[in-house]
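Re: beginner question about structure tokens

> Can someone show what the tokenized structure looks like for a real chain? I only ever see the sequence side.

Sure, here's an example I had lying around. Input first:
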Amino acid sequence: MLLAKDFNLEDISGFNAETAIRSMDRSEATLASDSNSISEQDGWKTDVNVDIQVPSCEKCSEGKERVFTVHGLAYHPLISVIRAVFMEAASKWFHLTPFKCIWKSPVTGREQ
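And the corresponding structure tokens:
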């Protein structure tokens, strides 16, 4: 591969084989463990029961809504998603500074 005519050395700049191998080893260890499902190891909460209040025209002892339980939902906590994204190398390129967008109407000339 390195001797191919269309190979560009810049394509592998920043690549670290030792880091890549360590990452693959961790992935294999995660797959090999039988304690949790893959989704739970990735931070997903599975088989969760959630109560929701649904408005009803009927009167009931709790008020104007009835409570229903939805069984077996799966979700991923938002905070852990945000943390994981900011641990990625690409996060250094995120645009985090607020900015003001100004648009000038070509008809009225008014800025918004």
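Each token stands for a local structural state, so reading them left to right follows the chain. The longest strand covers residues 45-60.
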